[in-house]
Design brief:
Two copies of one chain form a homodimer. The first copy, chain A, is an alpha+beta fold and 458 residues long. Chain A folds into two domains: 279 residues, Aminopeptidase; 124 residues, Alpha-Beta Plaits (2-Layer Sandwich). Chain A is built from 15 helices and 19 strands. In chain A, the strands form six sheets. Chain A has a six-stranded mixed sheet with strand order 1-2-6-3-7-18, with helices on both faces. In chain A, strands 12-14-10-15 form a four-stranded antiparallel sheet. Chains A and B meet through β10, β11, α7, α8 and α11 of A and β10, β11, α7, α8 and α11 of B.
């Protein structure tokens, strides 16, 4: 048998073709018209796991989008590693900003462009290929492996909060590897210690029973856009603090060690601003940019709409106005409690002359934090040092991966984030791409990490 | 010679046939495919004026839709009255809500149903018929008459702001009668003393160069929706006053006489709320509902948008956020000055960490107010008292008709609103109609009014 390195090398072009095939499936989990495409993506993953030599592969229904499970459990004395990823994607709008159609993958300059390329199809395919290479080179795996891929990550994994605790035995493990995420830079690895949680609301304001003429009625009753704006504006202080009563109550303060881990990461304000394309940064006073992005909670309006949006003007006072609001949460905030505080705030600040309703948008997540010296992190750190020749940073992610909190709460196992996306890859935006160099490095890294974890005695 | 009453009576059925012929022309000014129909309507009006005995009739080009001019100027010592109306119509959508095709007039229950029936073809044909009746019954007119009909009222008369001042001599007059508008009720006349002006802006906020992930970046820079909301919220006080510096500076206070005129009009708050479908009214403190609707300026957001508007949520911080803002203006506010004050306010309140731009939306109008005891109103009041057996209300309109302000500024002549539409006639909506009783009453009213104005010495 050849080495896993040789195996990976020999199958490089087939693996790329397979990734492209996978990326052609428009598995947008938030849009009901793509429900069947999410299912097709699950079937594709199931087939691919079986071809890799994984056993007991099943597409399981959750009540929402399905999950895919598979296992290889033939080394009794070794730890059991659960590998996680997701095969659903974000929507594609604004579609006119894409250079190529989002579900017709384009390979250009050693990158593959498509919705889902980095988040998360490219990343989640990596461990499947690595396991195939190990099985075909070493004849067996160094650890017991379970795969658990979901199809609802981009809508906040609404069914997993029930599915995972009710499948505790199937999913039980010593450690989770999450193939959803990324590295610090092309030449710089990082261990991701934390994720923020999330909760979201839709805010709907209704005034008149239909749109009315702004000349005839303007000035006599409250425009629902004005009411909406008034409520939203009440949620922040001018310097960027969140003004919802009780919002910060359960926030765990950053320890000195945590602050110094974050401070050790090189940061250029100029580069950060350039990356965003803004002249100035802004946010909660008293915290550095990374602290604000990773370890402090937020309240952001993700969308707002009401009335006329076309050319010129239409002199209308609309009947309704709407906003989508989400909060990123940090330990030990509870998403349900925060949603309740928000609703109480909205009720308190809603003008009485309009009808205001606030409704949960499904998809909450608990914040997540793994100790920096967890054995899983120690193994990953060793792989990174070998592959990159560098110590990884101890960073966090500002985003939310609900499943990490759910898995920790249900299985008692921590998840090590082990994925290879990079920050400029337009995740959740037009022209998403994934570097083929990351795709290949990731495959090696997974082989090395699984081999190392074979030495771990949990 | 018979009296004008006899003449009108004898030609009643021909006049209805002519109205129906006029209504068959789909002269929708906002739709380029109907450009030629607007022209056909102008030709129809031109022909009808000539048959009525009007001289020097011309279809004049404006750079946009044409206008029609005609005159009868043979009573040297008498005042000159310019009669205004428009032969263009609103679009017809939603077409499926019409009981009969909008340009195939249907006469039912003493009403004629068609697009433009009340607004404004029925109303603008009235003075032509009245003048024909006077010429054929009295051999001459009691005053000098000029007709000035336009084909672009429904798109805000874009070319008239230039056309009217550059045709001052042609249009010069002592008084204007506007045949575009209506009465308070079937048994209740009103004199419309005022119109509000308008100016409008689009407000655009840009933060990051593209949409970004609210997890990755949330908390580090300013969300453009937050900046937009902050700017808009700064424009009103919580109790409904407009907080733009200088906004009220040129507002003419309501006199006691004006307030008592408005107070004399029956008003039911319950009916007003029921009409809108709201539980409570809201607006600038210290003013009644009609005062706020007619005689106080407003600042209303007609549309707002940014970020995600679909189902569920998309955890994005959008690159841009936008709003359409318009102000209704009252004497002596100047639309250009108010737009400048708004722009200055926006510049002052725009957070420095985002890019904000405010741009004019074309289509301003000056506010308009005619003294209630203007000789033209005194004559109209006398006609109303004779025809309805009632004193007219002294009301205003909250909407904007740009041409009244343009005519006043260019010709120094006030316009008396003298038209016979009623509020339930579905103007700008499906199943527009005009009462044949109003059509006939209007013809009498114009004969009576022109005869009365013959006694006026301006």
């Amino acid at each position: 048998m050849a080495s896993w390195e040789t195996y990976l090398n020999e199958h490089k072009s087939r693996y790329l073709d397979e990734l492209i095939e996978f990326l052609r499936i428009p598995s947008i989990s938030s849009q009901p018209e793509h429900e069947n495409d999410v299912k097709r993506a699950a079937e594709w993953v199931s087939g691919r796991l079986q071809r890799a030599g994984i056993e007991a592969v099943q597409v399981l229904s959750t009540g929402g989008h399905p999950v895919v499970y598979g296992e290889w459990l033939h080394v009794d004395s070794k730890p059991t590693i659960l590998i996680y990823g997701h095969f659903d994607t974000q929507p594609v709008d604004p579609i006119d900003l894409w250079s190529d159609p989002p579900f017709e993958p384009a390979v250009k300059e050693n990158r593959v462009y498509a919705r889902g390329a980095a988040d998360d199809k490219g990343n989640m395919l990596i461990p499947i290929l690595a396991v195939e290479a190990l099985l075909n080179s070493q004849g067996k795996l160094p650890v017991n492996v379970k795969f658990f891929f979901e199809g609802q990550e981009e809508i906040g994994s609404p069914q997993l909060a029930e599915f995972i605790p009710s499948h505790r035995d199937l999913l039980s493990c010593d450690l989770i590897l999450s193939a959803d995420g990324g590295q610090w830079g092309e030449d710089q690895p990082a261990l991701n210690l934390g994720l923020r949680g999330i909760c979201a609301l839709q805010l709907d304001v209704q005034a008149a029973k239909s749109d009315v003429h702004s000349g005839t009625y303007g000035g006599t009753f409250m425009n629902p856009i004005h009411a909406l704006v008034q409520i939203i504006e009440s949620m922040h202080s001018p310097d960027g603090k969140i003004m919802v009563a009780g919002f910060y109550e359960d926030v765990r303060s950053l320890s000195e060690a945590e602050r110094s881990h974050i401070e050790a990461i090189p940061y250029s304000e100029d580069d950060y601003k350039k990356g965003l394309g803004v002249n100035e940064l802004f946010g909660e006073p008293g915290y550095s940019t990374y602290e604000r992005a990773w370890a402090r909670p937020t309240l952001e309006v993700n969308g707002i709409w009401g009335g006329y949006q076309g050319q010129g003007n239409k002199t209308v006072i609309p009947s309704t106005a709407h906003a989508k609001i989400s909060c990123r949460l940090v330990p030990d905030q509870d998403p349900d409690k925060i949603a309740q505080l928000l609703i109480a705030h909205i009720e308190k600040h809603a003008p009485k002359c309009v009808n205001v309703s606030a409704s949960h948008i499904p998809g909450t997540a608990y914040p997540y934090l793994i100790p920096h010296d967890h054995p899983g992190n120690q193994a990953a750190r060793a792989v990174h040092k070998e592959l990159y020749g560098k110590e990884p940073y101890y960073a966090r992610m500002g985003g939310s991966i609900p499943v990490c909190g759910i898995l920790l709460r249900a299985l008692g196992a921590y998840a090590v984030n082990f994925a290879f996306g990079l920050k400029d890859e337009n995740v959740h935006a037009p022209n998403e791409f994934f570097r083929l160099s990351s795709f290949e490095r990731g495959q090696k890294a997974y082989c090395m990490l699984l081999n190392r974890l074979g030495d771990w005695e949990p």
